[in-house]
Design a protein that fits this description.
Rossmann fold; 322 residues
Length: 322
């Protein structure tokens, strides 16, 4: 078993797109040190085709379903290379039997599973913002309702279950705390350090992957989603005209929140017992900083989602400007 694979499984909203773009940008440098980022499994910048081919959750997804490959074809592609890097945050949706199938695909490789995790209350807000922004199947629910549905929408943020499932089939798991790495702007370098001894030839500069919208603006955008008036053309006008709703930098001010009062603390309380068990159960978690149990980013006078509908007049006035 001489060949190695780095299997990056996400999770969502932990810098996955930045990591994937960095892998693409550094393909030549990676090749020079014996690593490959296979293009045959790419959809955009990530290897989504592999989890789409194995995980039943994506069977009814029209984009994913048309790109499914047989396990024989997947193995043929993987065997073309020596050491490989595979990255898709969609791996984290795999159930136990599906993780077993993924393990079978890599049975001839020495596999290192890399996963970034972040505190769940922050991830929920980040994921909600992303879903409101997307043009296809945009999020229509208020944030409070979205949080209540996490077990259906984002089951993988139960990290204890997620890590249990993957460690049952893979011996080598590397876990990174996204909150800590992002604070230092070291998400990309942290990823490459999991398998590259000397990263001097790797470009780890991290460009902003997504425009960071203010939360007041996201609340308004969700109301427009509900009114079903956002054609792609209208959406572009809204983004352009709504510049006064955007923050001044590409980092969202975390003192602003969709959570009301103590609701962030209450939300996180669902996950904290499992997180504690996770750190206590696995030896490899000892080198990972625990999530801070504090909520200083939520201030009493900061914006929380109430009713974005009241901002519609503001944006419509902007749209009417010549």
């Amino acid at each position: 078993m001489g060949r190695k694979v780095i299997l990056h499984i996400g999770v969502h909203k932990t810098g996955s797109t930045a990591i994937q773009n960095a892998c693409l940008k550094n393909r030549k440098s990676l090749n020079e040190i014996g690593w490959h980022y296979p293009e045959e499994l790419l959809f955009n910048e990530a290897h989504h085709i592999l989890p789409w081919s194995v995980i039943d959750r994506f069977l009814n997804d029209p984009i994913a379903n048309t790109r499914r490959l047989s396990k024989e074809r997947l193995k043929d592609i993987l065997f073309k290379y020596g050491n490989i890097v595979i990255s898709s945050e969609n791996f984290c949706f795999a159930k136990d039997n599906e993780v077993r199938e993924i393990a079978e695909l890599f049975e001839d490789f020495e596999t290192i599973v890399v996963v970034f995790i972040r505190r769940q209350d922050r991830l929920l807000q980040s994921e909600y913002v992303q879903r409101v922004k997307q043009e296809v199947s945009s999020e229509l629910r208020p944030f409070e309702e979205f949080c209540r549905l996490w077990q259906f929408l984002l089951p993988h943020i139960d990290y204890l279950t997620l890590i249990n499932r993957w460690s049952s089939h893979f011996d080598n798991i590397v876990v990174r705390n996204f909150d800590v790495e992002a604070e230092k702007d070291e998400v990309i370098s942290s990823f490459f350090s999991s398998f590259v001894d000397n990263t001097d030839k790797i470009d780890t500069d991290q460009a902003a992957e997504n425009v960071a919208y203010g939360l007041k603006y996201i609340s308004l955008l969700r109301e427009l989603n509900n009114l079903e008036i956002l054609t792609p053309g209208i959406r572009r006008l809204v983004v352009s005209a709504g510049s006064e709703f955007l923050p001044n930098s590409n980092k969202v001010d975390e003192r602003h929140s969709f959570y009301r009062g103590d609701s962030a603390k209450i939300t996180y309380a669902q996950f904290r017992p499992g997180n504690i068990k996770l750190w206590n159960k696995f030896k490899f978690m000892k080198s990972v900083d625990e999530f801070p149990d504090k909520f200083d980013y939520i201030g009493s006078n900061d914006f929380v989602e109430t009713n974005g509908y009241k901002y519609l007049d503001d944006i419509l006035k902007l749209l009417r400007k010549p």
